[in-house]
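Exercise 7b. C-alpha cells:
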C-alpha cells in the first residue's frame, strides 16, 4: 500500500498520482509499489523526473499537510 495515497484504481489499470508519489522517500528504502507489483509494470515516468532532494521536499510537504 502506498504510504502517501498516490495509487488509485483506474478503469483498467492502477494510476499513480505524481503529485503524491515520493517513490517512498521518507517512508521506505525502496518504492513499495515496485516491490509488490506482480507484473513488474511500474516504469519511471520521463515527464516527472525528480531528484532525491525533490522527493524529500515533497514528502515533507505531504506529511506536514497531513500532520
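Sequence design result:
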Amino acid at each position: 500500500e502506498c504510504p502517501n495515497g498516490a495509487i488509485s484504481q483506474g478503469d483498467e489499470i492502477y494510476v499513480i498520482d505524481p503529485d503524491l508519489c515520493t517513490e517512498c522517500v521518507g517512508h521506505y528504502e525502496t518504492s513499495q509499489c515496485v516491490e509488490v507489483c506482480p507484473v513488474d509494470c511500474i516504469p519511471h515516468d520521463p515527464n516527472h523526473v525528480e531528484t532525491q532532494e525533490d522527493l524529500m521536499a515533497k514528502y515533507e510537504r505531504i506529511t506536514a499537510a497531513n500532520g
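Instructor comment: Residues 22 and 33 are 11 Å apart (CA to CA). The two ends are 19 Å apart (CA to CA).
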